Amino acid sequence: MKKHSIDTIATFAKRKGFIYPSSEIYGGFSAIYDYGPYGAELAQAIKQQWWKTMVQLRDDIVGLDSAIFMHPKIWEASGHVSGFSDPLTECRSCHNRFRVDHLLENIGQTADEKMSEDRINEIFDAHKEKITCPVCGKKDFTPVKKFNLLVKANLGNFTDDWNKDPVYLRGETCQGIYVNYKNVMDSMRVQIPFGIAQTGKAFRNEITARQFIFRTREFEQMEMQYFTAPNKEMEAYEWLKNYRWQSYLDMGISEKNLKWHKHENLVFYAKEAYDIEYQFPFGFKELEGVHARGNYDLTQHSTFSKKDLSYKDPQSGKSYIPHIVESSVGVGRIFLALLCEAYTEEDIEGEVRIVMKFPKHMAPIKVAVFPLLKNKPELVAKAKEIFDDVKTYTMCEFDDNGNVGKRYRRQDEIGTPYCITIDFNTLTDNTVTIRDRDSMQQQRIAITDIKQYLQQNIKTL
Ligand code: GAP
Predict the structure, then answer these.
(1) Predicted local confidence at residue 111, as pLDDT
(2) What is the mean pLDDT of the chain?
(3) CA proximity to 249, closest of 219, 276, 284
(4) Which residue of 149, 226, 286 sits with most ligand 1 atoms within 8 Å of its CB, as the best mutation to test the pocket?
(5) Which terminus of the chain is less hemmed in, N or C, by CB atoms within 10 Å?
């Protein structure tokens, strides 16, 4: 199937109410995006499916919703204050800023996050001749500087000095899970192994805005941290890898567009780290991380908070700091993967039909209801009656604007799996036509069968 460019996807996403650039009437706001009406629905579907997979269907995982602001010491314990940075350089000619690891990647070189500023400068200098500015094409860059990605705020600071006792907008949601581990242990009937899952906003001062919603400064994460005994960590890790892979197939992503990427340079505490990558229009890139983190996180929080975060095994009576395997993904990344996966242009008798082939259960709108003619009050009244019923159990849209062919095309463009049309036969025999998005075939069914038909054909997990 033809791959479309990211610009085609972004333009389409704006035109059809999926994604808008932030603050557009003020000239935009770099690396921030808003979800339009259909985008908000699709994002909800992604989060609902994730929550169902990670919490509802699991007897061993509970949910959490921790605050965005947390004690600043948390970010010291986690290593974010000292080590959460990207290497930055500025083009002296056009003054655009770039991530040096990305510039090096373009010429087949690597700089990983563990390298010192000096080491990255050495590599950058050694290859400077080959590196041109992606914007103006010049070759004149400032020395590399590591730039911390945490976003600071002045919450609770009533002075003019923002750097005095800074608080941070969370850079990842999982820290809220680690610091609530003991609360969950104390208040819920959980025993190791168990997991805590949450979804929520995270913020990072990303240096470059690239690739539409792939890398943004405000984004929503979905993270699950699974607490295990030390000798069970890798068993849990294998389970989690398989479980997360399957969840993408269940979301309708084709397996040929997915692959595993193994991290070769692990941070010192990690046992193993893989990313699930998706084939975006700009190549295979990270969708989600699945990492075996050892007992680093709880050890750090235990040291910094001076609280005992060990677990006493009820059988053996032995205490240990639990090990953690994590699954972490951004809603926006799955959203973009689904847009790329679904966007299809078909030639129908010499005309281009744009159709979003979302899996039916992920589609923003599940059903559209049309009266055949808008100037026939009896058809409109019947269509409204059916619409008022269908909308009580699924996302439904009413449309009486333009001819029915145009209405079908509009629904195809947003991926609506079924369109129901009320015509003159409906008034006499209480049947409607129901048209399938993919086959474009219509069939007549009884009004009383609509709910059952939709339930059978829009299969959820
Ligand atoms: N707790 C681990 C963690 O946060 P990460 O690799 O920094 O690890 C995990 O982020 C996931 O969050 C990524 O795989 C990606 O899906 C998403 N993500 C990270 N930074 C992002 C950004 N700037 N914009 C959108 N999504 C992002």
Answers:
(1) 82
(2) 95
(3) 276
(4) 286
(5) N
